[in-house]
Fold this protein.
Amino acid sequence: MSVEIVRIPVLDDNYVWLLHEPESGETVAIDPAVAGPVLAEAERRGWTIGQIWNTHWHGDHIGGNDAIKAATGARVSAPAAEAGKIPSLDVPLREGDSVRIGAVEGMVMEVPAHTAGHIAIHLPSEQAVFVGDTLFAMGCGRLFEGTPAQMYANMDRLAALPDATRVYCAHEYTQSNGRYALVAEPDNGAIRVRMEQVDAARARGEATVPTTVGLERETNPFMRAGSVEELARRRAAKDVFRG
Ligand SMILES: [Zn+2]
């Protein structure tokens, strides 16, 4: 692994990811909800943000774009399908496109459902995937602009990545997702074991993200749904779940 990945917690439960590739000195901010803490973290490390990558248009993923761009001249790469909703966009991204940080390549996957143009970015050499609000630890994003069938296909694609792939989600939702996962799959011992670890980590104030593809394959009721219908049922149940 050559890219350094820094987690910056902002707002209530968002994570902005700051990537730095030491050979080229390049730095990328992924889904900067806000600018201040992201610029401050980069400055503290002596890094200059040269690019922003957005996974989708929601304000808590692009809110810092303009101010970071103004401060650093960063180039904004974001979903082509959401260009109208991301005014700061410089480089429109589509399925199969690649992005680069230094010599490290990221592959663009279109994963619509949470929003109509949502993308994920997979860095195979780093065994890392940045999934925005599509996949969460033991959860998936709400279906604001897409269908259960689309989310089912997204889960399939992400589950097909190597088990060791680290999954960088944009929110700390693990504990709430896990409470629902225990209800969705009461006989799944892996979920119970994981929740004990998650509860302990949260009690210590620690983050539970990134997760891994392998761990999600064992404990994520949305990735594990056996059919579109099952995913739809679980998503609808989670939408109103109060655990
Ligand atoms: Zn969102």
Notes: The helical segments are 36-44, 59-62, 65-72, 148-159, 174-184, 189-203, 213-219, 228-239. The mean pLDDT is 98. The longest helix spans residues 189-203. The first strand starts at residue 4 and ends at 10.
